[in-house]
Structure formats: C-alpha cells, structure tokens
Amino acid sequence: FGQYPENTIIQRPIVAAHRGVPSQAPENTMAGYRLAYDLGADQIETDVQRTKDGQLVIMHDNTVDRTTNGTGAVDALTLEEIRALDAGVKYDQKFAGEKVPTFKEFLQGFKGKNVLLLVELKDKGIEQQVIDEIKSEGMMDQVSIQSFYLDSMQTMNNISPELPIGYLFSASVPKTVEAKLQNAKKMVDYGTMNDVNLNASYGSIYEEYIQYSRQRGQMSMHWTFRAEDPFAEKLKQGMIGPITDYTQWLTASPIQL
Ligand code: G3P
Ligand code: CA
C-alpha cells in the first residue's frame, strides 16, 4: 500500500483466503485453494454442505447454479451428479475442467502443509460427519470451524471441545456500542461452550470489541475484505485476522500501523 517512513512498525496479519482467491481463480475449487497456499495464506476458508446421497462437498450457495455449468440444489443432487459439473469454466475458460471438490479432497490437498483450514458449515446436522472426516484424515490440529448457526457450533463443541470454533455474525443490531459489546460477551458465554472466536463482519467491529476478543486470547477472523481502506483501519484498531478475496494484497504488502 505504498512507501513507509523509517521506524514504521509493520505487522503482517493472519490472512484467511476466502473461498480460495476468487479475485484470481474460481471460488471453492482446488485451483483456487492451491493459489491461496502459493500466495502465502495462513488459512484457507471454505464452505461445506451435504449432497442428496449424504456426501460432504464444497459449495457456498445452496444451489450449483452460479458457480458451475449445472442447475439444482446441492441437497437435491447426488455426489456423482455434482462431480460431473464444471466449476471453473464460468469463471474463465482456462479453468475449464475444475470440479466441485469433496470435503475429503479439500482436506487431503493440504494435509500436513503449513496452512490452517477454516471450514464453514453451511448446513446444520452435518457436524458429526464433518468431525469424522477431519479425524479420519488425522487433521484435528489443522482445522478451525465456523458457522452462522450458534447452536450448530454448540453441537461441534460438545462433540469435540478441542476444535477451535468461530461464530460468524454481523453485529449491526443492536446499534449502540455498549449493546454490541454486551451482545458479544453473551455469545462467548453461551451455553457450555468454553470459548468461541467472534468472527464478526468487518463493518461490525471496533477497537473495544477487538480488544475484548484479544484479551480472551481469541483468534477472531473478520469478513470479507475486498478493498484496502477498511483493512488498514481495522488493523490499526487491533484486528488480527482478515478474511479476504484478495490474499495477494495482504500477504505481499506489509501494513503501516
Ligand atoms: O468466512 C466468512 C464468510 O465466508 C461468511 O460469509 O457468505 O462468504 O460464507 P460467506
Ligand atoms: Ca464462507
């Protein structure tokens, strides 16, 4: 982001590649994830759903329509039907032939590599299956889970308390700063969950909120950075973890504090 005066403190954030690097490659494809890894992402973010025949696949939307050459809801299609689709050609002809990854393929692609996998559960009810697949790959120490469904995260925590959990939300309601912080504390203290990272949207976080999260030793990740301005501002407020469509910006350019 430009030149810095001498004695500038430089901090490199913990960067999560949102669905891979959708600014340079089709989202949620192995090509996109490999690019994220090559660009130096600290985490690779992805979205998991279950097919009609009970298999875990990677897809953001409820349907395959936007990102593939097919149509239909993910939970109305079999794995075989989804694997026959092209997940790259709509983005650019040069990515033709990219398939919708299975969750297992995603895990195996980065097993043992120096990157954390930030796995978002788009469906409720798949918690046990997700954990089983992570365990069967021996990757419990390489995965972090997140969801917009707090009860689903509670279930994850009950099954595997050792797995780091992030609760996704936008704190735009309630409106006041005090009420937002209070809301955050309630989320952390929810149920029997030991702790939960507060993965709020970047528009919802502010210095006091970020400090609260940091004081609890959380690695809260914030979404989704697609422009440079809010990123620099939020880093100054103490934010640690941006989730971004532009991994190439954030791993390549140190930020002035
Ligand atoms: O990682 C957070 C972010 O992915 C949540 O929103 O809709 O892109 O899955 P969405
Ligand atoms: Ca996501």
From TrEMBL:
Residue ranges constituting the GP-PDE domain according to the UniProt record: 13-254
Full protein: residues contained: 426 to 682 of 770
Species this protein is from: Fictibacillus iocasae
Q: Which domain of life is it from?
A: Bacteria
- The protein here is known as Glycerophosphodiester phosphodiesterase family protein
